[in-house]
Structure formats: structure tokens, C-alpha cells
């Protein structure tokens, strides 16, 4: 149940992020991992923008997102693995990430 729940939470988080302008989910979310990338409005540097969004999320503190490189591109790495993580936690985390991305814009 824990594994299936964490995988569902990851899929929901990916769905929420993918619906936002400038956000892209880089992986097939079949487990508990989400790789997201953010592009700035216009033709800015998506690598730098993604790293800035990650930093903003880390400073904001609602959830933790780490940085990684996926196929040569900067990405935000999110892992859902806490047994106490709820659907509300996922929604709050998605809201926080999207707020941070909008604030970096």
C-alpha cells in the first residue's frame, strides 16, 4: 500500500506541475519519482531558470526539491516516499512549487 500510494502521489504531483505554463515533466512517472523542468517566459535559459526555481522551493520550505541533470538538461527531482505523506501534502507542495516558479519569472 505504501509503494502504491507514493506512486499515486507522484503521478498527481506530476499532473499538477505539467498543467502549468512553462513546466515540463521529463520522465514517465511510473514510480515515486518526478523530474520537472521549468522554462522562463520568452526565450530565456531554461537550465538557469529551473535551478532558480529549485532554489526558491528550497528557501520557501513547504517541500524539498533537489536538482539534477537529466539528458544534459537541468531538472528538479522530487521523490515521494514518506509514509505520512497525504494528498493534501501533495497539493500544498504543487501549489508551493508553482508559486515559486511564478515568483522567479
Protein topology:
Blueprint (H helix, E strand, L loop, with lengths): L1 H17 L4 E3 L7 E6 L7 H15 L5 E5 L2 E7 L7 H18 L1
Antiparallel strand pairs: 1-2, 2-4, 3-4
Helix pairs in contact: 1-3, 2-3
Spell out the key features of this protein.
single chain; 3 helices; alpha+beta; 105 residues; 48% helix
Summarize the structure in words.
The chain has about 100 residues and is of the alpha+beta class. About 50% of the residues lie in helices and about 20% in strands. The chain has three helices and four strands, in the order αββαββα. The protein has a four-stranded antiparallel sheet with strand order 1-2-4-3. The model has no long low-confidence stretch (mean pLDDT about 95).
How would you concisely characterize the structure shown here?
Helix content is 48%, strand content 20%.
Poorly predicted runs = none
State the end-to-end CA separation.
38 Å
- Percentage of β-strand residues: 15-25%
Average pLDDT works out at 96
Total helical elements: 3
Largest sheet: 4 strands, antiparallel
Which shape, going by the Cα principal axes?
globular
DSSP E strands, number: 4
Structural class label: alpha+beta
H and E order: HEEHEEH
The amount of helix comes to: 40-55%
Amino acid at each position: 500500500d505504501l509503494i502504491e500510494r507514493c506512486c499515486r502521489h507522484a503521478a498527481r504531483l506530476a499532473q499538477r506541475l505539467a498543467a502549468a505554463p512553462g513546466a515540463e515533466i521529463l520522465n514517465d512517472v511510473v514510480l515515486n519519482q518526478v523530474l520537472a523542468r521549468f522554462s522562463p517566459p520568452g526565450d530565456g535559459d531554461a537550465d538557469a531558470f529551473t535551478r532558480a526555481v529549485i532554489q526558491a522551493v528550497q528557501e520557501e520550505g513547504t517541500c524539498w526539491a533537489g536538482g539534477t541533470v537529466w539528458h544534459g538538461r537541468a531538472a528538479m527531482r522530487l521523490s515521494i516516499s514518506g509514509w505520512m505523506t497525504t494528498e493534501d501534502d501533495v497539493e500544498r507542495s504543487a501549489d508551493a512549487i508553482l508559486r515559486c516558479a511564478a515568483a522567479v519569472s
